[in-house]
Design goal:
CATH class: Alpha Beta
Low-confidence stretches: none
CATH architecture: 3-Layer(aba) Sandwich
CATH topology: Rossmann fold
Number of helices: 7
Mean pLDDT: 90
Order of helices and strands: HHEHEHEEHEHHEE
Radius of gyration: 16 Å
Structural class: alpha/beta
């Protein structure tokens, strides 16, 4: 189950998104990430006509797509009441919600570690059902918390899980491509052997 939407308040967004001193990523960094992800899909010849952003935060992915890929139908969701009111997302809880449509690209950045084990497993199944092509996933692991992240810029009040825990559940739906990209198992894409895990 997701942590309550009240956790993701104005103060949370101010700290982890608003202040350059305490945020991990701003618009410039997300623009680089969006360019990289969409360029890889272009390389594989995958059209990006539809995008679902789960846990859209302040809308940095949406803003980039509006500027650079405006033809893509973009849908953004958040569990936070505050973020939905402030940034115009649909209020959805990915542990319980599944759209009727499947999307060429699903973005889920920084969401899954906030979910308990059952909620996270349910969310992964819902993401899998809504992905027609690719998932971009960022989820910090127990090892990341210990060895990689900057605790001053990352909320560490999350469920600490191993990468193996995530991979076991993601493999039901996806092939791991790398750098956070997961291809839907039945996506019409052929990879060289060393392009995938």
């Amino acid at each position: 189950m997701a942590k309550g939407s009240e956790v993701f308040s104005a103060a949370y967004y101010g700290k982890y998104y608003g202040s350059a001193r305490t945020r991990v990523h701003g618009a410039k960094e997300i623009a680089r990430l969006c360019t990289a992800i969409t360029s890889m899909l272009d390389w594989w010849g995958v059209p990006i006509d539809s995008v679902l952003d789960v846990g859209a935060g302040v809308g940095l992915w949406r803003d980039w797509f509006a500027k650079h890929r405006s033809r893509a139908a973009y849908r953004s969701t958040e569990v936070s009441r505050y973020a939905c009111a402030q940034y115009g997302h649909e209020q959805r809880d990915i542990t319980r919600w599944r759209a009727d449509d499947a999307f060429d690209l699903v973005v889920c950045q920084g969401v899954l570690p906030y979910l308990d084990d059952k909620g996270c497993a349910d969310a992964i199944d819902n993401l899998g059902a809504m992905t027609a092509g690719f998932l971009y996933l960022e989820a910090i692991t127990k090892k990341d918390i210990k060895d990689v992240i900057d605790n001053a810029k990352t909320d560490v009040k999350v469920y600490e899980r191993t990468a193996a825990w995530y991979r076991t559940r993601l493999r039901k739906h996806y092939t791991e491509v790398g750098c956070g990209l997961w291809a839907k198992r039945d996506a019409p894409v052929l990879f060289y052997e060393l392009e995938r895990r």
